[in-house]
Amino acid sequence: MFEKYRVKSNETIDDIARMFHTNKEYIEDLNNLYYSESLREGMDIIVPKNKTKYFDTYTINKGDTLYGISKKYNINPNLLASINGLNLDDYIYQNQVILLPVSGYSYYVTAEGDTLETVSQMFKKNKENILKENETIYLLPGQILVSERK
H helices of the chain, where? Predict the structure, then answer.
């Protein structure tokens, strides 16, 4: 299954491929794109239908801060920084694209020493459900795990 997606400012094929859990070559083939430069803002492309979209993207504007973005979108600032591999005091720059977690899901960025048991306790779900909701779990520090809120 496929759907139409409108390219946002400064998005690359790699950004879009990550968002739809595929690779850039597949997006290029679906859309007869032979050069990454042929991707333009406002262009409609075909992408694999993603049943579950865990993240939206946001392009940083002049004057934005992680605190301001987190307040605007009602997101915990520490979570916003973590899922983007940032610290709260890191510099963010205009046109940088970051991930915004969508509502309805709980997110956790793994830390040293995490186990499937500790993660399942944190999400208050059994291990099998955690494994179903996350395609691959490495439990290395910095992996983002997602669980649907009920």
Answer: 13-19, 24-30, 66-72, 77-83, 116-123, 127-133
Residue 37 carries which side chain, given as an amino acid letter?
A: E
- The Cα–Cα gap between 58 and 44 comes to 18
pLDDT digits (tens, 9 = 90+) for 49-99: 655 578 888 999 999 999 999 999 999 999 999 998 899 999 999 989 898
Residue 71 vs residues 53, 76, 90, 99, 147: alpha-carbon distances, Å: 21, 8, 17, 15, 22
SS3 105: strand
* Cα gap 34→28, rounded to integer Å: 7
Strands 144-148 and 105-109, bridge-based pairing = antiparallel
What does pTM read for this prediction? 0.63
d(CA 1, CA 51): 10
